Amino acid sequence: MSVSFEPDHAASWYAATANPAPERSALEDEVSCDVCVVGAGFTGISAALHLAECGFSVVVLEAVKVGYGASGRNGGQIVNSYSRDLDVIEEKYGAETARALGDMAFEGNRIIRERVAKYAIDCDLRNGNLFAACNQKQLEGLREHQALWERYGYRELELLEGEAVTREVNSRRYTGGLVDHGGGHLHPLNLVLGQAAAVESLGGRIFEYSPVTGVTHGEPAVVHTAKGRVRAERVVMAGNAYLKGVLPEIEGKSMPCGTQIITTEPLGEERARALIPNGLAVEDCNYLLDYYRLTRDNRLLYGGGVNYGGSDPTDITAVIRPKMLTTFPELDDVKVDYAWSGTFLMTLNRLPQFGVVNGNVYYAQGYSGHGVTCTHLAGRLIAEVMTGREERFDAFAGLPQLPFPGGRLLRVPLSAIGAWYYQTRDKLGV
Ligand SMILES: Cc1cc2nc3c(=O)[nH]c(=O)nc-3n(C[C@H](O)[C@H](O)[C@H](O)COP(=O)(O)OP(=O)(O)OC[C@H]3O[C@@H](n4cnc5c(N)ncnc54)[C@H](O)[C@@H]3O)c2cc1C
């Protein structure tokens, strides 16, 4: 399933409340640079910013606009660590790999906060997120999760059992929850726009409406768009789920997945606070999870569902609103003002894929649903590897990158069957 480019941002609450950004032109001639970055989401812009700070000349090519992809339209939840937890990494890939990844599991979050402070980015950054358990088994899982992260030195977690969880989220759905006081949420489009401005302030160049059509490998590599090309010593591929037909070496071993978000009309402070009293971001522990939070103007921004292959439902509100009403039945009279869809990239082991093709084309992708923090780490590690410090990048690059069973044709139905199985287990609480 391919992802096609629309002419502008998705019609999201984020696009409606984006900070002003300059009109950026398309690439129409030939330019040269040290590093050409393909894709202006968190991965690409984070890499470009770290590289520009290290003194590299950087050109970013974006198919549509900065933040057009998942980065400008996600739940905005700052979730620490990775989509696959550290105990599974220990079990599958050994203690040394788990330690290396564990040492970096909270760094992406720190990078975001450093960026926001250093470049004074106005993106509604708020502290705290909650993992909500829908049954006793999930609550036990959260207890283990707390012990696990504490083993990796992270001590910001607070377990809430039974009724105590209603202190943070006023819903009958949950048997408990785990607060991460060090997590949080933000306006993701404004975060990426702010970092793009920082790239430009350091001399980096960003071209919009410049979809890359191919790369001629070599030293330098040549990156082609419809009307221009970039000669670059190195290339960073950061197109994630939206990349199609540019670098086959990295496109076959992952699966684009769609997920949808709705945003209500403003609820007013009192009604909003009655739902989530301390304003945490919330995600439940189901295999196909719901995730939600309040916006700065007291709307409820509610996401959920996964479409394997990245295809969108025709009526997003009809799919997501019932989920929201299961959590908060009292919102039955509330209007939905925005509904949109986005695509993230799933990998078979739920761990990101980092690597290098032909010696100078680097990539980082496949954060499998939790990418806000890890994309920011990826940008730093790409800059590190380009300045001769390979070790931390290689800790990720050494992870297996396996294709989905069934290949391009059958990976979608096979994954849907797997998801149905886990969803049924969640419903039964087993
Ligand atoms: C609806 C939704 C909700 C989510 N919620 C959360 C959340 O709350 N917390 C969390 O941690 N994660 C969340 N995620 C995941 C997270 O958003 C992603 O993992 C992350 O944004 C990926 O960033 P990226 O820069 O790698 O990719 P993207 O942000 O998708 O950026 C890729 C960019 O590359 C461009 N591009 C692609 N191909 C080309 C080409 N050929 N030429 C030029 N440009 C190209 C695209 O236009 C796009 O702008 C969510 C994802 C979605 C879709």
UniProtKB/TrEMBL annotation:
Coiled-coil segments on the chain, per record: none
Pfam families for the chain: DAO (PF01266)
Alphabetical UniProt keywords: Oxidoreductase
Domain of life the protein comes from: Bacteria
Domain (FAD dependent oxidoreductase): residue spans on this chain: 34-384
GO annotations of cellular component type: cytoplasm
Protein name per the record: Gamma-glutamylputrescine oxidase
Organism expressing this protein natively: Halomonas ventosae
Organism phylogeny: Bacteria, Pseudomonadati, Pseudomonadota, Gammaproteobacteria, Oceanospirillales
